[in-house]
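Input/output pair, single chain:
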Amino acid sequence: MVDQSIYHKFKKSRLIFLVLYVDDILLASNDMTLLLETKSFLPKFFEMKDLGVVSFIIGIQIQCDKTREI
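Output:
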């Protein structure tokens, strides 16, 4: 079971998670194209702005290892 504030989409080997916390949205994906498609889709229905790459959210430090293949 996925929490009511966590949404996911799986399409073959591509996946994306959308996590809501109060008025923040965190997107995480293993596919850059899917991530960009989602980021361009959401503002059509919601007022939002992109704050860039996350480093902290709700007190948790986020790190990304871009040297690894998924």
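The chain has a mean pLDDT of 84. The two ends are 24 Å apart (CA to CA).
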